[in-house]
Design a protein that fits this description.
heterodimer; A: alpha+beta; four-stranded parallel beta sheet; B: alpha+beta; five-stranded antiparallel beta sheet; globular
Chain lengths: 367, 177
C-alpha cells in the first residue's frame, strides 16, 4: 500500500528545516521541500521495496563483473582509458560508498528500475536527515525506511582507508555542497580526518594529487561525474596517481544508462527490470529515450508507441513505466544503497511525468 | 534514524514504542549530528569524539567558506634548496618544508629529500595574484637583475605542478543525479 496524504505543514517549517542545515528548501521561489503532504506505506510495501533494491543491487554487481570479464565496454560508449580504470578498480575490489536507484513503483506492483544514480547521487541530506526530523516532530509513533545515516557512518571505515579523506565538489552549487558536506560529516563521525576543497582546487605536483596545503590526496570523495573527470586536463594523471576515488571508477559502468539494456539482456523478464535496448524498434509500445550520461531528467523524452528513434547518439530506449500519480503528482521513489545494503527511501514528485532537479521532495512514513 | 530492518519488532510486540536504532536511548536523545535547538558547535570537535561532531547549522557555514571558488588552470612551481637556512633566506620561517621530490622532470634538484619553499604561480612575472607566495627573494632578485646564478643562497632546482585541471565541466552543467 502506498498513498499520498495531505497534511498541515509545521507552522514555521522553513525555520525548522533551516535549523538543521537545509538551505535550499525553496528554489526560485518554489518549494523544493514540501511537507503539506506525505507518502504513507504499510510494512509489506516497505519490505517489498527493500527486497527489490537488494535484488537489483546484486544484479548490478553481477553486470559489472560480466562487463569487465567480457570487455563489453563498447556497449557503454566508454574509451580504453576509462575501461582500464574501471577494470582496475573492480579487480582491486575498491569499495563503494553509496548510490540511489530510481524506481517506478506504486506500492503494489513490483518496483521497476528506471536508472541507477551510482556515481554522484544527490538528495541525500533531505532523505537521510530532513525527513527524519520531520518524522520525529510530526509522527513520532510512525516509522520511516531510513537508516542511511547509521549505515554511512558504518561504511566509512571500509571505504575511507586509514588516513585523511578529501572531499571535492562544485561548492558553488548548494545542493552539491550540502550533499558533500553531509557526507564529510558522517566521515568525521566515523573517526577520519577530513578536508574539503572545491574540485578546481585539486593540484597535481608531478606525482600525486594534492590539496591546497600540498598534502597528498590519498582518498578522494568527489561529487563529480567520472565522465567529466576523464574529459578534463588532469585525466591523464588519474591512473598514475595513488589516489583512491569514492565512488570508485567501476561505478561509472552503472551510472551509465547503457547498463539498462545489458541488465535486460542478462536478466530478461526480471520483475524489477524494464525492457531496454539501444534500438527503438526492439521496445514495443511507448518508450523513454535517455542519453547514456544525462542527469536530472536532462535529455529524456517520452516516445508514443508510433514514434521512432530520436536523432541523438548514445541513446537508450526503455519501455515506459509511468510513475504513479497521486493528487495529480507523479511520484518517483529513490531507493538508497549504502555499501551493499538497502538503506532508505526518498520520494520526489512533479506535475510532469519526468522527474527533474526542480521536482519536490516529499517525506514518507510507514506504519 | 529508524532502522527499518528492525521494524518487525515494532509496535506489535511493544505498543507505543518504535523499534529503531534509538530504542534504548534516553527520551531526550537527538540525532548525533544535528541538534536543531542546541547551541553552536565547533566545526571539528575532535575532543568529544563519539558525541556530536558538527552541527548542521555549521554545515551551512562551511558552504559559505567554499562557495564560488574558482581556480582556472594554473601552472605552479616551488623552489628546492640545499638547506633549511637557504630556504628561510628566501621565505619566511614556517613556509619551508622538508619533503621528497615530486618532480619527474624539470630538475627538482635530483631525487630524495629536499627543503622546499611554497608552491607559487609559474606566471608570477606577468601575473601578480594576491596571496601567491612568489618565487622567493633570491630568485626574484636574480630575475630583476638578469643574473644567471645565486650567491650562496637561492634555489637549486624546481618542482613543477598545476592546479585547476578538474572542474571545467562543472561550470557548464549540473553534477548530481
Amino acid at each position: 500500500m502506498m498513498r499520498r496524504e495531505r497534511i498541515t505543514p509545521r507552522a514555521d517549517w522553513q525555520r525548522e528545516v533551516e535549523s538543521i542545515g537545509f538551505g535550499f528548501h525553496t528554489i526560485d521561489g518554489q518549494p523544493y521541500w514540501r511537507e503539506d503532504a506525505c507518502y504513507v506505506f504499510d510494512t509489506d510495501a516497505i519490505d517489498e521495496v527493500e527486497a527489490a533494491t537488494a535484488e537489483l543491487h546484486g544484479m548490478c554487481l553481477e553486470a559489472v563483473d560480466r562487463i569487465v570479464r567480457d570487455g563489453r565496454y563498447d556497449a557503454l560508449g566508454i574509451n580504453d582509458d576509462a575501461a582500464r580504470l574501471a577494470e582496475r578498480s573492480w579487480f582491486d575490489r575498491e569499495p563503494s560508498l553509496y548510490g540511489r536507484m530510481d524506481l517506478s513503483w506504486d506500492g503494489v506492483s513490483p518496483p521497476k528500475l528506471l536508472e541507477y544514480n551510482a556515481d554522484t547521487p544527490t538528495s541525500l541530506f533531505e532523505a537521510s536527515v530532513v525527513q527524519w526530523y520531520w518524522l520525529e516532530a510530526c509522527y513520532p509513533d510512525a516509522d520511516q525506511f531510513n537508516s542511511i545515516h547509521e549505515k554511512l557512518i558504518a561504511r566509512w571505515p571500509i571505504v575511507g582507508g586509514g588516513g585523511r579523506v578529501h572531499f571535492a565538489a562544485c561548492y558553488d552549487n548548494p545542493e552539491d555542497g550540502t550533499t558533500t558536506d553531509y557526507l564529510l560529516d558522517t566521515c568525521l563521525q566515523a573517526g577520519h580526518e577530513v578536508q574539503a576543497l572545491d574540485i578546481e582546487e585539486i593540484g597535481w605536483n608531478g606525482r600525486v594529487f594534492i590539496d591546497l596545503a600540498d598534502r597528498p590526496i590519498d582518498r578522494l570523495f568527489k561529487l563529480y561525474p567520472w565522465e567529466w573527470l576523464l574529459d578534463e586536463a588532469f585525466a591523464k594523471h588519474i591512473a598514475p596517481s595513488r589516489t583512491r576515488f569514492i565512488e570508485p571508477a567501476w561505478k561509472m559502468l552503472l551510472s551509465n544508462k547503457a547498463i539498462l539494456p545489458l541488465l535486460w539482456e542478462w536478466f530478461p523478464n526480471h520483475p524489477n527490470l524494464l525492457p531496454a535496448s539501444l534500438r527503438r524498434e526492439e521496445i514495443a509500445g511507448a518508450a523513454v529515450a535517455k542519453p547514456f550520461w544525462g542527469r536530472e531528467g536532462e535529455g529524456i523524452s517520452v516516445l508514443d508507441p508510433h514514434q521512432g528513434a530520436v536523432v541523438a547518439p548514445h541513446t537508450v530506449y526503455q519501455a515506459l513505466a509511468p510513475l504513479p500519480v497521486f493528487d495529480g503528482r507523479h511520484a518517483l521513489v529513490g531507493s538508497w544503497i549504502v555499501g551493499n545494503e538497502a538503506a532508505g527511501m526518498g520520494i520526489r514528485e512533479d506535475n510532469d511525468r519526468i522527474t527533474r532537479n526542480t521536482s519536490c521532495f516529499v517525506p514518507h512514513l510507514f506504519r | 534514524m529508524a532502522n527499518k530492518d528492525k521494524k518487525s519488532l515494532s509496535s506489535k510486540a511493544s505498543p507505543g514504542r518504535k523499534a529503531d536504532a534509538k530504542f534504548d536511548l534516553p527520551p531526550d536523545y537527538r540525532h548525533p549530528s544535528f541538534y536543531p535547538n542546541g547551541k553552536a558547535e565547533p566545526l571539528f570537535n575532535v575532543g568529544e569524539r563519539g558525541k556530536r561532531m558538527r552541527s548542521a547549522a555549521v554545515v551551512v557555514g562551511v558552504l559559505g567558506l567554499f562557495g564560488y571558488a574558482a581556480w582556472p588552470r594554473t601552472d605552479v612551481q616551488r623552489n628546492s634548496y640545499a638547506s633549511k637556512q637557504d630556504c628561510e633566506h628566501d621565505y619566511a620561517t614556517g613556509q619551508c618544508t622538508y619533503a621528497p621530490s615530486t618532480s619527474t622532470s624539470g630538475g627538482g634538484g635530483g631525487g630524495g629529500y629536499h627543503y622546499y619553499g611554497p608552491w607559487y604561480r609559474s606566471d608570477w612575472r606577468t601575473n601578480t595574484v594576491a596571496g601567491d607566495p612568489g618565487p622567493g627573494r633570491s630568485y626574484a632578485s636574480s630575475a630583476r637583475s638578469g643574473a644567471s646564478g645565486f650567491a650562496g643562497h637561492g634555489p637549486t632546482g624546481f618542482d613543477f605542478g598545476s592546479r585547476g585541471g578538474f572542474g571545467s565541466s562543472g561550470r557548464v552543467g549540473s553534477r548530481g543525479g
